[in-house]
Specification:
The structure is a single chain. By secondary structure, the chain is of the alpha+beta class. 46% of the residues lie in helices and 17% in strands. It is built from three helices and three strands. Strands 1-3-2 form a three-stranded antiparallel β-sheet. Strand 2 and strand 3 form a beta hairpin. The longest helix is centred in the middle third of the chain and has 13 residues.
């Protein structure tokens, strides 16, 4: 696997704006990713616990997977 990474210094709203989605959708997606063990939400940061898993998930989304079909 790959090393853990963190995102710090951004609010959820700022991150949502950066990726072009609503804050509500970001929170729903982060919750789903957290259940899968891909990210951990901590005060003031988002820990990407499984960067390889996140990359694979993004590839599936880009290929047309819908929520609930990520893994």
């Amino acid at each position: 696997g790959s090393a853990e990474m963190s995102i710090r210094g951004l609010t959820q709203q700022e991150l949502a704006t950066m990726v072009g989605i609503s804050r509500t959708w970001l929170v729903l997606m982060l919750s789903s990713f957290e259940k899968e063990g891909i990210v951990l939400r901590r005060r003031g940061r988002i820990v990407i616990a499984d960067p390889d898993g996140l990359s694979a998930l993004i590839s599936r989304i880009e290929a047309g997977a819908h929520p609930g079909e990520y893994r």
